[in-house]
């Protein structure tokens, strides 16, 4: 397929990051959210990110302007009518995603591929909510999207070979490496990563070491570029909790039980970087 128009639902961190790399790859993007304010914030974020690339001499001013011109914003699902691929990047909540996917399916053509950026929910279950579920697939991008080189491509039970091939083609066009995963909670990367983050939170909860020392230990002792608690703050503690709860429900295994401290911090609104406070403090 000559992919030239993509729809994106959700203008938050993941949505605006995906919009940015698609626009830089020459793909027209229709970015949807529930409010004009969220869309304006997303465009401002993309513009600021492109300015950073210009400052590093990785991009020209002309390329920035061309990329921004490829991103159209809307609050109306009807604008997705001409999209060949729509990626849902809404909050990691099953009921919300199901509602969004049904609205997408009601507007796009029967051969439009529909994808979810979910990091933990069942692709098979999400696919069952739309007509022609064989056109549904998981495209799990990583944060920050412009910098991270990986896309997890997740096949549901219904996903066709053609849909899978299109997903791999898109990853290549975006300059990303794709790995294909089966439909299990957390897929590959989060299945390994998030339990490690949860264990780091349990270590902090037990008073075994400070947050700074835990992160320093993993950075300097395991050669990780960022410590697990700082990474949790970057991901968002509410997202980490949602992933762990999906694991706990999906596997029915107590080893995935979220740390009580994590649940308490989310309840307090200490969500990490986006709230200014998590395991570390942010300006």
UniProtKB/TrEMBL annotation:
Domain 3-hydroxyacyl-CoA dehydrogenase NAD binding, residue spans: 5-181
Chain sites annotated for binding NAD(+): 10-15, 33, 92, 97, 119, 143, 274
Domain annotation 3-hydroxyacyl-CoA dehydrogenase C-terminal: ranges: 186-282
Keyword entries, A-Z: NAD, Oxidoreductase
Coiled-coil features, chain-numbered ranges: none
Xref: InterPro entries: 3-OHacyl-CoA_DH (IPR022694), 3-OHacyl-CoA_DH_CS (IPR006180), 3-OHacyl-CoA_DH_NAD-bd (IPR006176), 3HC_DH_C (IPR006108), 6-PGluconate_DH-like_C_sf (IPR008927), 6PGD_dom2 (IPR013328), NAD(P)-bd_dom_sf (IPR036291)
GO MF assignments: 3-hydroxybutyryl-CoA dehydrogenase activity; NAD+ binding
Swiss-Prot/TrEMBL site (Important for catalytic activity) positions: 140
The EC number(s) this enzyme carries: 1.1.1.157
GO biological process: fatty acid metabolic process
Enzyme class: oxidoreductase
Protein origin, superkingdom: Bacteria
Family: Belongs to the 3-hydroxyacyl-CoA dehydrogenase family.
NCBIfam families, per database record: PRK05808.1
UniProt-listed PANTHER family: 3-HYDROXYACYL-COA DEHYDROGENASE FAMILY PROTEIN (PTHR48075), 3-HYDROXYBUTYRYL-COA DEHYDROGENASE (PTHR48075:SF5)
Protein name: 3-hydroxybutyryl-CoA dehydrogenase
Lineage, uppermost ranks: Bacteria, Pseudomonadati, Pseudomonadota, Gammaproteobacteria, Pseudomonadales
């Amino acid at each position: 397929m000559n992919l030239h128009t993509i729809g994106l639902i959700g203008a938050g961190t993941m949505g605006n990051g995906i919009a940015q790399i698609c626009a830089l790859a020459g793909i027209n993007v229709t970015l949807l959210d529930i409010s004009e304010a969220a869309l304006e914030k997303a465009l401002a974020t993309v513009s600021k990110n492109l300015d950073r690339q210009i400052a590093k001499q990785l991009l020209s001013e002309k390329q920035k302007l061309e990329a921004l011109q490829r991103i159209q914003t809307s609050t109306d699902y009807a604008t997705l009518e001409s999209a060949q691929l729509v990626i849902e990047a809404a909050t990691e909540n099953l009921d919300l995603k199901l509602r969004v996917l049904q609205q997408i399916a009601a507007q796009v053509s029967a051969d439009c591929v529909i994808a979810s950026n979910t990091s933990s929910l069942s692709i098979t279950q999400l696919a069952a909510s739309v007509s022609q579920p064989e056109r549904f697939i998981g495209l799990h991008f990583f944060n920050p999207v412009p910098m991270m080189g990986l896309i997890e491509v997740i096949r549901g039970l219904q996903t066709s070979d053609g849909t899978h091939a299109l997903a791999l083609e898109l990853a290549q066009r975006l300059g990303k490496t794709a790995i294909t995963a089966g439909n299990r909670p957390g897929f590959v990367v989060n299945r390994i990563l998030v339990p490690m983050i949860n264990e780091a939170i349990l270590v902090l909860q037990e008073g075994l070491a400070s947050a700074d020392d835990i992160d320093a230990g993993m950075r300097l002792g395991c050669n990780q570029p960022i410590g697990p608690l700082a990474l949790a703050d970057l991901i968002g503690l509410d997202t980490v909790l949602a992933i762990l709860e999906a694991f706990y429900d999906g596997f029915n295994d107590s080893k995935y039980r979220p740390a009580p401290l994590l649940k308490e911090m989310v309840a307090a609104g200490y969500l990490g970087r986006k709230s200014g406070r998590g395991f570390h403090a942010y300006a």
